[in-house]
Task: structure prediction
Amino acid sequence: GLSAITVPWDTLVLSVGLYIVVPVIVAQVLRKRILASGGEPGLQRVLGRLQPVSLIALLTTLVLLFGFQGEQIIAQPLVIALLAVPILIQVYFNSGLAYLLNRMVGSAHCVAAPSALIGASNFFELAVA
Result:
């Protein structure tokens, strides 16, 4: 069953380090330097330039992640389904509930929709790591 899947500690530590710790440290160092040299307007300019790059980087991460695990996905479709179906149900339920509650308290669609998606995201970046 699913409980038989083991993740070695070295793999877990390496993944957390590469996908969470290193990016957070680099981002904080860069943010401090940019704020020191250009202030808030400089930071906003840099963030505007980085937005397309961050989207491409996320998509590249997904392609690589699923590319490297392609054999496992094909070899164990039942395990993948057992993991994916409950997550899909949870995301649809949580995002629908969050959207409905946002609208009930008077939030506009342009606020309620992103709020609902963020609330139902399952911290995707952590799941990738």
Summary: Residues 1-68 form one domain.
